[in-house]
From TrEMBL:
Required for the formation of a threonylcarbamoyl group on adenosine at position 37 (t(6)A37) in tRNAs that read codons beginning with adenine. ATP binds at residues 63, 67, 148, 156, 200, 239. It is found in: Cytoplasm. The keyword Nucleotidyltransferase applies. The lineage of its organism: Bacteria, Bacillati, Bacillota, Bacilli, Bacillales. This is Threonylcarbamoyl-AMP synthase. Residues 18-204 form the YrdC-like domain. Its EC number is 2.7.7.87. GO terms for molecular function: ATP binding; double-stranded RNA binding; L-threonylcarbamoyladenylate synthase; tRNA binding. L-threonine binds at residues 40, 72, 122, 126, 146, 186. Belongs to the SUA5 family. It comes from [Anoxybacillus] calidus. It comes from the Bacteria.
Amino acid sequence: METKIWVVDNIEDKSQFYPQISQAAELLRANEIVAFPTETVYGLGANATDTAAVEKIFMAKGRPSDNPLIVHIAQLQQLEEIATDIPAFAYKLMERFWPGPLTLVLKTKGKISEKVTAGLPTVAVRMPNHPVALALIQECRLPIAAPSANLSGRPSPTTAKHVYDDLNGRIAGIVDGGETGVGVESTVLDCTEEIPVILRPGGVTKEEIEQVIGKVRIDAALEDKTATPKSPGMKYTHYAPKSPVIIIEGSRTFLQHLVDEQRKNGMKVGILTTEENKDFYQADVVLPCGRREDLHTVAAHLYQVLRHFDETDVELIYSESFPVEGIGSAIMNRLKKAAGYQVIREK
Ligand code: AMP
Ligand code: MG
């Protein structure tokens, strides 16, 4: 299949990108799959009401079929067509965080394909905060199911090139709107319980949600990898570069010592660090990932840096760790998955 590419030079100027968007929307209406930018990562979209269209996503990504997809909408009115029994606190959250990186899990009305919800009684919905994504969804007048536009297991794409590298020839098109902003996926919040539960930490933090609606819980599976997650997708290894990643909890000296030991054994070792610490280390490849003093910059670059290691010949990657608060929770969740939960702690 030939993958069409539409380049949007100025994402703020709808009149300029409208012709490209309308071609992409036409393909979505014809039940083809198209990748597009959102404020978190690139999404791979399909008509969420059509099972054959949604099946194409699972095929292209190699995604396990028990892992449900998030439905993307552009207007509140679309929400009430697909979800029911929406609690008052969910409306408060929408008012504060939509459009934005917060996904709400609500009771489904059954209009969305069962392939999207993996047969669950619930549907996950969000309104993305990206002018291109919103214009595209509006133009095709459909709820759009869209997981991240990468091959299953690989780091999520934050540029159109990442999408191209993984999916060229497997999808109908890519709308290239430049680099995404947040860099990690949306927060997934289960709103079907009396006290809502964070199933996946992401772009909106627990602290920010609690400021609006008070206490929320965190799914036990996020802290204990032996527990069964309520969000089926969280059980899969994810976000991983080709070489193993190990997270180091300890000082820079401790990390450097581990690297030195491995290099003595002839291993080629990479280090994932930050701008503040990059000059401290010696290794085969040292890649800074944003600035420690602003963890949002770490989130924004994380997947890009994980992918960058694949272009080097390192055989092992040691990563610094980050504080598990604010956006740091999402960063550490993704890093731990990329590392298959391998952590070495300094004694
Ligand atoms: P992705 O589309 O790759 O960003 O992943 C979507 C995430 O949302 C996965 O972790 C899914 O398991 C989760 N998800 C989607 N729909 C539901 C649902 N109805 N209930 C719980 N989790 C969901
Ligand atoms: Mg994904």
